[in-house]
């Protein structure tokens, strides 16, 4: 069985590729390197540099490499930026999904694991997000991910596609020192860059109704996330049933203050965070249950917060040595 990993040169996709190899599954990567890095692709793994929007290239990748399933990670992932660039977001995430599904249908590829997002829920006001929590995306990014899930469901009816979507919030850590998060928008890279440059990281709001006054969020280790993608792929290969969607959540969450404390402890760089005002629209707490994924995908939090920070910091430091 050969799995095409779209976006496989990115932070998350590259970890998925490594997890596939560890499971003795064949992988091929398609990535346009708009945010990924070719050096993240393991040696020996076929790499196709192309956009998910390039129908000819996607079709050729499927045929040339004997692809039997797709793990679709590629996409424009910046929720905040998507508000300013909605058309670009929809082109990458919706038109890209359509292009991919068309190639799959033409070539008889009938299984897909979609790397979706908990952004489909929007700014929820519940203690624990479940798969049944109402979907109310608060950004074009979240909307585009939800549309992607709809397209998969429609293809299930129309063409017999077997699929599942994995929803998650914040992905951190590193499972390989050669791969780290290079996003200019995510919390861990932002904190690391501030520390490297000798600046104090920033906390936006310390007066939320949470135990320490800072926002509480779900943070999961990227290697755990990758294992869940592979578990879903293996169930599809085996013809075993899957839910249409799973939350990959911690069930508890951690606060921004807890993250800052862990950053200081694990980096050895003591600092007092700069305190700023709340960001508009930031809910006090967003945490998801991972019970369904634990039942079907062996999902669990295998890494502590300290391990998440330590692995991410070691990978980031290795990148500049």
Automatic annotation (TrEMBL):
Pfam families hit by this protein: Epimerase
Keywords: Carbohydrate metabolism, Isomerase, NAD
Cofactors, names only: NAD(+)
Catalyzed chemical reaction(s): UDP-alpha-D-glucose = UDP-alpha-D-galactose
Top EC category: isomerase
Entry EC number(s): 5.1.3.2
Ranges of residues in domain NAD-dependent epimerase/dehydratase: 3-249
GO molecular function terms noted in the UniProt entry: UDP-glucose 4-epimerase activity
Gene3D superfamilies attached to this UniProt entry: NAD(P)-binding Rossmann-like Domain, UDP-galactose 4-epimerase, domain 1
Pathway: Carbohydrate metabolism; galactose metabolism
GO biological process, one term: galactose catabolic process via UDP-galactose, Leloir pathway
Top-level lineage group: Bacteria
Family stated for the protein in its record: Belongs to the NAD(P)-dependent epimerase/dehydratase family.
Protein name (record): UDP-glucose 4-epimerase
Species for this entry: Microcella alkalica
High-level lineage: Bacteria, Bacillati, Actinomycetota, Actinomycetes, Micrococcales
